[in-house]
Amino acid sequence: MSILIKNGRVVTAESDYIADVYVEGEKIVAIGKDLPYKAKKTINAKNKLVFPGGIDPHVHLDMPFMGTSSSDDYTTGTRAALFGGTTMVIDFILQTQGDTLKNALKAWQKRSKGKAVGDYSYHMAVTDFNDKVAKEVVHMIKKEGITSFKTFMAYKGALMIDDGQMVQLMKVVKKNGGLVTVHATNGDVIDSLIAKHRKEKKLTPLYHYLSQPEVTEAEASARFADMLDYTGCPGYIVHMTCEGALNAVREATQRNQKVFVETCTQYLTLDASLYKRKDGAKWVMSPPLREKKDQVALWSGLNQGMVQVVGTDHCPFTMKQKAMGKNDFSKIPNGHPAIEHRMELLFSAGVKTGKISLNKYVEVTSTNAAKIFGMYPKKGTIAIGADADLVIFNPNKKHTLSVKTHHMNADYSAYEGMKLTGKTETVLMRGQVAIEKNKCLLKPGYGKFVKRGKTSLTI
Fold this sequence. Notes:
Elements: E1 2-11, E2 16-24, E3 27-32, E4 41-44, E5 49-52, E6 54-59, E7 64-65, E8 68-69, H1 74-84, E9 86-94, H2 101-112, E10 119-125, H3 131-144, E11 148-152, H4 163-175, E12 179-183, H5 187-199, H6 206-210, H7 214-231, E13 235-237, H8 243-253, E14 260-264, H9 265-269, H10 292-304, E15 309-311, H11 319-322, H12 342-351, H13 358-372, E16 390-400, E17 419-429, E18 432-436, E19 439-440
Parallel strand pairs: 1-4, 1-5, 6-9, 9-10, 10-11, 11-12, 12-13, 13-14, 14-15
Antiparallel strand pairs: 1-2, 2-3, 5-16, 7-8, 16-17, 17-18, 18-19
Helix pairs in contact: 4-7, 7-8
């Protein structure tokens, strides 16, 4: 298949120019003005933006959690991602405590094989670190192409490891060229506040938020940075929500330390006032939504280069699943549907309002994730030889987000009625037209697992 995209405004993290892009097979073959190629398909992109396909490095597809499973599987989740302009996701494998990483990998391979529409990779969550697991970590990096390892500083008894295990994991990962990522919240403090509120019969979704005050995230982020500094391991904080946590990373820079940071679209566009609503369970996630002042801090962090990536932490549940906690906030499955809206939300709320530039937008939605997680320049840019993952985007098209029009397997929208400017119109996935005229043209199984290498973003 050959495709010629004509007269688009090509935007990467570094450049912004008018050009044609010629695609042959799965790769970008040529870029320039008035390219002479004859293609089987020509797309007129005049007055449109052409971005590299988005990369969402934080999703949970078909994930067992709190007695149920997230409602998007690899087919519905990656398809919904494509509708929004995200061509690649990185999901989280969860090791069962007492079991092996190998068995966890097999379980997730079974969930994903032959089902993904877009490309995908895995982070490996280490929930039980020991000498045997240390050897498995090396195998994952060297043989499986899984080079990032998730840790939890919360969820004791299920996912959390202690600081001693964290340090030992960091030493192994650093030696073998990997990266440690973290859910940075102080689980002990949070557990004590949950118990207090339950004892006092304070059980509405508001108390989910009040059980995870800003200090729990700020303290854990600082502690994680200190452990990274001690071990010399590269590290990445997922779903950062607040000013206090961001300031902990700022302080780490005073000792010339770089800690990679991800925030999510919900923390840039929604706030904790939603927990006071009767349907507040829709936004129960961990960490919770924060305050307006935290949104200001995170937007500033993006522009200052303190926050490198915007993901989603996409972990959807139906309203029936959310109702498991109708009488107790601590039993509400944590997460919300967001994978489809990331690119359009960030463009409308960020680029259109002047909060971030177009180049910064591409950097935080695609390029930095590709570099941090060892996929650049195969992914994350528009360049000769790169995968032809491309988004043709109408910067002026207005639309409204709604459960009636989204493609995620969720029966509500966390952004219902939100009016946006900027719409994904056509998406190429490794040289094939994936999305056109609001239809997905690819079948489950087209998406491939992507092996990854070392971090290449300068630190």
